[in-house]
């Protein structure tokens, strides 16, 4: 919201955390790096536990006012850019970024007034595939392959540190290609996470309606299409156009169906 | 000694540590960043305490083989470059370096076969003046002035991370967002201009077929969609998927048309 305080637009989201001490350490790491917006999604422990308070060491205000939710939807709804941290690059079916690259992109978006988020998964198993599918890219901390076990709070510290460095870096980084519309004046803000998820839901329904899958599993195609549209970072207006196209395709499918559905499949 | 393994020449020195958990967390942070040489000077706790072992989480070998000493002399004796971490820049009467600058200088020296060290002070009071006087420069982590309380292990994590980044500098960076498909092997080349134009032609025909325009000029929408897909830079395979979707939408439109086209327009 306020370009003067870009870190206010940036939330770090802990998903399914098991150890209250990690929530406390993460809060302390965040606060020392100037980050204040924490979100706790489906924690597997009590964030008010004394271990959390002890390790927060004065950053317990972040925990007290942390957004809490049972799933990612409300936390990501207004976000235009979401990155998820992963322990390994291999097998992650999405673009990979270093913490430094990620911080640069997050800060650029936050400075433009957009809401952005970074997700941190469970101590034991990280983020699951569904959660990673909600991300525009994965942040990969280049640990030693011989010992890649990074503590959750340590990962938060590294990302928070790079965000702080990016914030202190005076010159705003070069802007990525965006959805600006020279025909219509100023640049258009990219769609929010909720708007993009709305598009993906509609796309999924429309592909079924026009019988695109023909018995094959829709998973691979949907994963590819998600990646394609995440890359494009459509504006809210572009999302509306795409909804319109999908609605017309569905209308044709209904008419075809009403006519007896011959030649389908 | 071995320029191929510069991190072997680099030791992190914990001075007067009070909490065994911090020794364990520091060991884990170091090992995950490829650092193996830990030294413990006059610890105020038992480095073999179970809290240290628990938080080391598999990095307890670093603690077991850590150099131990009552003062800095034996630990720094063979070092040519020593930096000390400080919580605050003010009042430190020596050159100040960011962790990034420090890591760059430490790695350069370590690559040249020199022994180098970074000192980390007490949880409560940091390094004292005598200890800082042993250092060539101070490393200052730019915490938020409103909350500069960085946990000891978090400071170790930040410095170890920058050392790892400096070591990897020169290695190929993490992959940029592209159309690569790790599911299927190597990266996919982006589609050619001709393939993109082929998609736009098909898109134009499909929008007419499903009666998207409803009498309005197609120019503005097509211009927007072109821009969207140019930004996404789809791969040849993604273009094929989009052709498939458009073909199925056209098929539905034909079926609807054959059924009499009621409700169209």
Task: List the SSEs and their pairings.
2 copies of one chain form a homodimer.
Chain A: E1 10-15, H1 20-32, E2 37-41, H2 50-56, H3 60-64, E3 67-69, H4 72-76, E4 79-86, E5 96-97, H5 99-111, E6 115-120, H6 129-133, E7 137-140, H7 152-168, H8 193-209, H9 219-232, H10 236-258
Parallel strand pairs in A: 1-2, 1-6, 2-3, 4-6, 4-7, 5-7
Helix pairs in contact in A: 1-2, 1-7, 5-7, 8-10
How would you portray this structure in words?
The structure is a homodimer of 265-residue chains. With 265 residues, chain A is α/β, with parallel strands linked by helices. Chain A is 45% helix and 13% strand. Chain A has helices at residues 20-32, 50-56, 60-64, 72-76, 99-111, 129-133, 152-168, 193-209, 219-232, 236-258; strands spanning 10-15, 37-41, 67-69, 79-86, 96-97, 115-120, 137-140. In chain A, strands 3-2-1-6-4-7-5 form a seven-stranded parallel β-sheet. The radius of gyration of chain A is 20 Å and the shape is elongated. Mean pLDDT of chain A is 88; it is low at 171-185. At the A-B interface, helix 1, strand 5, helix 7, helix 9 and helix 10 of A face helix 1, helix 7, helix 9 and helix 10 of B. Chains A, B: Catalyzes the formation of 2'O-methylated cytidine (Cm32) or 2'O-methylated uridine (Um32) at position 32 in tRNA. Chains A, B: Residues 10-161 form the tRNA/rRNA methyltransferase SpoU type domain.
